[in-house]
Design goal:
Bound molecules: adenosine monophosphate, magnesium ion
Distance between the termini: 38 Å
Helix content: 10-25%
Oligomer: single chain
Number of strands: 30
Strand content: 25-35%
Radius of gyration: 30 Å
Length: 435
């Protein structure tokens, strides 16, 4: 059902977020490709990975010390005969060592615990003399040993499809013998900035013009979310050229537009999309920055011809093609960046094959009080400071949602609930860390 653009669909932050998460959860990622282990860093795993053997593959000593039978050292002091040394790595002849009553092996961290031993006494509690060791501390069975297969059993799943490959996941893949991994191909996400005043970096500029920065911030955010950015030329505030560029953008997996979604006479994005019978899920969210954010989808985007006749074209003349999602992000640069994080990121992550994850906030103590008009949920640029567990958050002074310089001085957003007018210094506030 297409909603006309004039019918405003302004949702609370939570409802708008839920809508994007719902749609994201129904998306399917694209094709797979096989890449070398290190090239998979930051990519999304497209195959389940199982352990090729038990982890650890043998009972592993976690200490340097002596492998013992716990029963032999129950009464202290105990003296045991040292019958050899076990270090990490293969043994000469590959004969597994065995321990009998009142005997011990000296053992190194990471080495296999011999048969018959059920604990390791740390070297700090022992003294060695003439081939015998005196033990000054009792141990319980299992102490200082990780049992064979305790971390993962052979053939059990250790990494699932949809996992983002961070350093730990790559280490685990290496430890189960995977030198190449299947990952999802990155989704292609189009960036379309709009506005007659916007010119590209490097072009001649007049005093009334503004350089395009949103296409660049969005391209970086798209890459960080696992997508590949396709930047289109800036669209003028003119419906036909705008429509042509929207059509181009709809040929990729997702279209992100910026600007042209406010209430001004030349804010044409919604109007052009409505002419394409777009379905709007929301046309605003009760947040600041970012109130005019638009989310919807349109069918018939891929390969649809554009028209250069006098009217804003409609999609009736085109064959129905799969739905394509779009966001109309506000043009103010900080609003663009914030609304990307709040709403567009989960869609890109889903297209990239990543398992959905909830949006989570941390908490910090407020360093200086906040006074603000209630009514909107605020995501205000702020700086986290302090040391260790004593993290504090403080707003950075800013000139509003166009102030990119203030955003560069911030490293988080403080979340102010819509019903709070005054938050005292020292109160706990929710913060969203930024990269
Ligand atoms: P709009 O939403 O089109 O009314 O734009 C809001 C503000 O954001 C205006 O001051 C625009 O000049 C500015 N703006 C819009 N698009 C961009 C862009 N791509 N780069 C930098 N600033 C922009
Ligand atoms: Mg504009």
């Amino acid at each position: 059902m297409a909603a006309p653009p004039t019918q405003s669909l302004v949702l609370s932050f939570e409802d708008a977020r839920r809508v994007t998460e719902d749609h994201a959860s129904r998306l399917s990622p694209g094709a797979h490709e096989t890449v070398k282990l290190l090239q998979s860093a930051g990519r999304i795993l497209a195959e389940p990975i199982a352990a090729d053997r038990d982890i650890p593959p043998f009972p592993r000593s976690t200490r340097d010390g002596y492998a013992v039978r716990a029963a032999d050292v129950a009464k202290l002091p105990a003296t045991l005969k040292v019958i050899g040394e076990i270090k990490a790595g293969p043994r000469p002849g590959n004969v597994p060592p065995t321990l009998n009553r009142d005997e011990t092996f000296s053992i190194m961290t990471g080495a296999p615990v011999p048969q018959g031993a059920d604990a390791v006494v740390m070297i700090e509690y022992t003294s060695l003399q003439d081939g015998r060791v005196e033990i000054a501390r009792a141990v319980s069975p299992g102490e200082n040993i990780v049992a064979q297969g305790a971390e993962a059993k052979r053939s059990s799943l250790v990494l699932d499809r949809g996992t983002r490959l961070n350093e730990a996941a790559i280490a685990l893949a290496a430890s189960v013998g995977k030198s190449r991994l299947q990952v999802f191909v990155r989704p292609r996400v189009t960036v379309l900035s709009t506005g007659d005043e916007i010119v590209d970096v490097g072009a001649e500029i007049s005093p009334s013009q503004i350089r395009n920065s949103n296409s660049y911030s969005l391209a970086v955010q798209i890459q960080q979310a696992g997508g590949e950015a396709v930047i289109l030329p800036v669209a003028p505030d003119e419906p036909h050229r705008l429509r042509e560029l929207i059509d181009q953008g709809l040929r990729t997996d997702l279209l992100l537009m910026t600007g042209g979604v406010s209430m001004g006479r030349y804010d044409l994005v919604e109007q052009v999309l409505a002419g394409m019978h777009a379905e709007f899920f929301f046309t605003g969210a009760k947040i600041q920055p970012g109130r005019p954010v638009v989310f919807g989808r349109v069918s018939g985007g891929a390969g649809a011809p554009s028209t250069s006749s006098g009217q804003v074209p409609t999609c009736e003349t085109f064959a129905p093609l799969p739905h394509k999602y779009f966001f109309g992000l506000p043009g103010n640069p900080v609003s663009t960046m914030v609304t990307f994080e709040l709403f567009a990121r989960p869609m890109i992550e889903a297209l990239a094959g990543m398992s959905p994850r909830p949006l989570m906030f941390l908490h910090a103590r407020l360093k200086s009080e906040i006074r603000i008009k209630p009514g909107l949920k605020r995501f205000l640029p702020a700086i986290l400071s302090g040391e260790y567990e004593d993290t504090q958050a403080e707003l950075v002074p800013w000139q509003g949602s166009g102030d990119i310089a203030a955003r560069t001085r911030s490293n988080c957003l403080i979340v102010v609930p819509p019903d709070r007018e005054h938050i005292l210094a020292g109160e706990w506030v929710a913060v969203m860390p930024l990269r």
